[in-house]
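Practice problem 4.
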């Protein structure tokens, strides 16, 4: 088994190795601007566990999201997907700033993520990005655009929870999108997304913080780590 990350995330790789009790050295190879860092080890137990959770050899092309994942764990599973195969960034055009999150994967993974996000009222769009001419494998991209939609997504995936494991670099970007005030007046549709809980519950006026933070912190069911289900929404979708 091997785990490879950009060398700017090597500290995260070291934390993983410490957590699983692996003392193997971290290897390096040149690739792009920062290079890559990789750790290798053997564990049949971990390989079997990962397969149960849809992580298999050539997972980018052949992997899937298992249907047996509990709804309360789904936001954490998706956070891992975006940490590994996703992107989060802002673009500035004049005096306007737009937020975007994207995820790369095969058609089964992307369509399942798309269906689940829509079930909690987070709009997304999927399209084919590339087809490998040698293998015929298609790479799909899922895109979430807009200040409100991206804020709701990072909150739903618990990036604001310091105890929830996440790639530090992406958590830093996610928190910036949660905490930064909108730099411009929002369009009506974007304003509705920014001030309405992604699960359909109105924000609590007494809980403080931004509208999105009030909404999601106030919508977690008491004594649980999951958000309340969207009223009238169907169970999470599948591809």
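Answer key:
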């Amino acid at each position: 088994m091997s785990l490879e990350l950009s060398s700017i995330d090597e500290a995260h790789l070291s934390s993983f190795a410490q957590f699983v009790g692996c003392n193997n050295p971290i290897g390096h190879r040149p690739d792009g601007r920062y290079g890559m860092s990789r750790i290798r080890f053997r564990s049949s137990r971990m390989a079997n566990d990962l397969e149960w959770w849809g992580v298999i050899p050539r997972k980018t092309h052949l992997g899937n999201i298992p249907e047996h994942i509990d709804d309360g764990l789904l936001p954490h599973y998706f956070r891992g997907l975006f940490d590994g195969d996703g992107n989060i960034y802002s673009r500035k055009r004049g005096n306007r700033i737009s937020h975007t999150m994207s995820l790369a994967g095969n058609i089964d993974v992307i369509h399942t993520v798309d269906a689940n996000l829509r079930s909690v009222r987070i709009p997304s769009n999927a399209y084919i990005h590339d087809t490998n001419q040698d293998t015929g494998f298609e790479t799909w991209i899922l895109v979430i655009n807009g200040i409100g939609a991206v804020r709701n997504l990072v909150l739903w995936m618990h990036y604001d929870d310091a105890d929830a494991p996440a790639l530090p670099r992406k958590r830093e970007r996610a928190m910036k999108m949660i905490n930064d005030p909108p730099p411009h007046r929002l369009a009506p549709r974007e304003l509705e997304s920014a001030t309405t809980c992604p699960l359909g519950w109105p924000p609590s006026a007494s809980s403080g913080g931004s509208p999105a933070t009030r909404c999601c912190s106030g919508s977690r069911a008491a004594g649980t780590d999951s958000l309340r289900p969207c009223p009238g929404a169907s169970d999470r979708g599948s591809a």
